[in-house]
Amino acid sequence: MTEFDIPSEQWAQVIEKSGGPVVYKKIPVPRPGPDEVLLHIHFSGVCHTDLHTLQNDWPIPAPLPLVGGHEGVGTIVAKGDLVGTNDTGLRIGARAGVKWLNSSCLACAFCLAGDEPLCPRAQFSGYTVPGTFQQYTLAKAAHVTRIPDDDAEGRKLDLAALAPVLCAGVTVYKALKESGARPGQWVVVVGAGGGLGSMAVQYARAMGLRVVGIDGGKEKGDSCRKMGVEEYIDFTDYASDSEEGSKELQSPLSGPHAVLLLAVSPTPFRQAIQYVRSRGTIVCVGLPPNAELRAPVFETVVRMITIRGSYVGNRQDAQEALGFFLRGDIKVPVKTVGLSELGDVYRALGEGKVVGRCVVDTSR
C-alpha cells in the first residue's frame, strides 16, 4: 500500500468575515474520521456558489470561519477504519473527487430515492463543512466520486479540466435530465458563456439537443459559438425586460422545448415564460440572492408549462456526468491560477468577467 507523508499544516483560503476578503494562510491538516477519506487536493474549480458563500447572502448563513470550494479533485492519502479495504476506488493513492454534497444519511426517504441532496442531514462542502480551497480536505467515503487514471482512450486525464465537472458538470447534466428535452429538440441556456453555461452547452450537444445560448457581450458570444450553440442572443442588445428578445426566440423555433436558467440575476427568471414553447419546461438552477419566481397562472395552465427547480445531482448523476468527460465530449476551456490568487477570481466573478471556468492549483 502506498504511504504518503502528510504534513501537519497546509495552505488554505479562509473566509473569516462575511464579504471577505479571503485570507491565504496556513491551517492544520485534519485527520479522517472512521467513515472519511483525506484527500490531497490538486485542483479545485471556482463556482458562483463560492462567491455567495463569501458574501454570505443566502437565506441559510454559512458558519465562519470557513474554507470554501466544492469542485476538488485529488488523491486519497489517508482513510478511516470503516472505509472498505476491498474497494479499489477508495484505496490509498486512488484519485477521487469532492462535490458540493459532502455527506448525507443514506437512510432517509430522500436518500433511498436517490435524492441525497435533499437529505435533512446533508452536509455541503465549502458551505457547512470545510471545502476544497485548501491543500488537504475531508470527505465522507460514501460520497466521493471515483476517478480513473486515464480517459476512455487511455490518455492521461487533465485534472484541472476535470475539476469543474464535479459541480458545474453534474449540476447542468442533472438539469438537462430534469428538463425532459429529447434529442433533436431545442433548449435555451441562459448564462451560456459562464462556467455552468459552457458546461451546459456541451452536455446538451452530447445529449443530442439543439442549443440557443443567451449571455452578454461579444467575448461570451464567441465562446458560446465555440462550445456549439446554433444561435446566440446577446441580452445587452435589448433593454431590460424588453419583449424583443423573447420574440426573437419564438420566431425561428416556435419557442424552445426547455429553458435552463443558470443566470444569477432575477430578470431572466421573469422572462422565460414569455418565450418557452407550450408544454415546455423551465428549469431553475441559478440562485439570484433575494429573488422571487413569479408566473402568470392563466398562461402557465392553458399552455401547460412546467416550472421546476434542479439542485445539483446524486452519486449516479456524478458518475454519468464524469462519463461524458472521460469520452471526450466535454472540453470546456479552463483558466488555471494559483490558490493564492483566489481573491482575484472572486473579483472577476463578481464583475461578470469570467468566461468558462476558473480552476485553482493548490500547489501555488
UniProtKB/TrEMBL annotation:
<feature type="domain" description="Rhodanese">
    <location>
        <begin position="174"/>
        <end position="230"/>
    </location>
</feature>
<dbReference type="InterPro" id="IPR002328">
    <property type="entry name" value="ADH_Zn_CS"/>
</dbReference>
<dbReference type="InterPro" id="IPR011032">
    <property type="entry name" value="GroES-like_sf"/>
</dbReference>
<keyword id="KW-0862">Zinc</keyword>
<dbReference type="Pfam" id="PF00107">
    <property type="entry name" value="ADH_zinc_N"/>
</dbReference>
<keyword id="KW-0520">NAD</keyword>
<keyword id="KW-0479">Metal-binding</keyword>
<dbReference type="GO" id="GO:0005737">
    <property type="term" value="C:cytoplasm"/>
</dbReference>
<dbReference type="InterPro" id="IPR020843">
    <property type="entry name" value="ER"/>
</dbReference>
<dbReference type="InterPro" id="IPR013149">
    <property type="entry name" value="ADH-like_C"/>
</dbReference>
<dbReference type="GO" id="GO:0004022">
    <property type="term" value="F:alcohol dehydrogenase (NAD+) activity"/>
</dbReference>
<dbReference type="InterPro" id="IPR013154">
    <property type="entry name" value="ADH-like_N"/>
</dbReference>
<dbReference type="InterPro" id="IPR036291">
    <property type="entry name" value="NAD(P)-bd_dom_sf"/>
</dbReference>
<dbReference type="InterPro" id="IPR001763">
    <property type="entry name" value="Rhodanese-like_dom"/>
</dbReference>
<protein>
    <recommendedName>
        <fullName>alcohol dehydrogenase</fullName>
        <ecNumber>1.1.1.1</ecNumber>
    </recommendedName>
</protein>
<dbReference type="Pfam" id="PF08240">
    <property type="entry name" value="ADH_N"/>
</dbReference>
<dbReference type="GO" id="GO:0008270">
    <property type="term" value="F:zinc ion binding"/>
</dbReference>
<comment type="similarity">
    <text>Belongs to the zinc-containing alcohol dehydrogenase family.</text>
</comment>
<keyword id="KW-0560">Oxidoreductase</keyword>
